[in-house]
Design a protein that fits this description.
The chain is mainly α and 109 residues long. The chain is built from six helices and three strands.
Length: 109
C-alpha cells in the first residue's frame, strides 16, 4: 500500500525534465566499428558543453537539451557509409553519461 506522500513524490518525478547533466568519466560499451568515433564524439560534446553552468562551486562541463540535439547532428558530418556507426557512438556515449541518473529510483529523491 502506498501512502499519499509516496504518490505525490512519484507524480512530481514523472513531471521532471532534464535541464542539463555534467559530463563525467564513464565506461562506454560499444562494438569496435563505432568505437573509433568515440574520441570525436567526446571532443564534440566538450566543445558544445557549458563550463560551470551552475557556478564554479558545482563546476564541470554541462550539456543542455539543445546541445544534445546538436551532438546528435554529428553523424551528418560523416560520409554516408559511416553515419550509422557515428550515430551509434553518439547514442551509446549519451547513454553511458546518464547511466547514473537512470539508476536513481523515485524513493532516492
Amino acid at each position: 500500500m502506498t501512502n499519499a506522500a509516496d504518490f505525490d513524490v512519484q507524480n512530481k518525478i514523472s513531471n521532471v525534465r532534464l535541464c542539463a547533466f555534467a559530463l563525467t568519466d564513464c565506461i562506454v560499451h560499444i562494438e569496435s566499428q563505432s568505437a573509433k568515433y568515440l574520441r570525436a564524439v567526446h571532443r564534440t560534446a566538450l566543445e558544445l558543453a557549458v563550463p560551470n553552468l551552475f557556478g564554479p562551486e558545482i563546476g564541470g562541463f554541462w550539456l543542455k537539451p539543445d546541445q544534445i540535439d546538436q551532438l546528435r547532428k554529428l553523424p551528418d558530418c560523416y560520409p554516408a557509409n559511416e553515419i550509422d556507426f557515428v550515430r551509434k557512438a553518439v547514442e551509446t556515449y549519451l547513454a553511458a553519461q546518464i547511466a547514473e541518473l537512470e539508476l536513481l529510483q523515485p524513493g532516492d529523491v
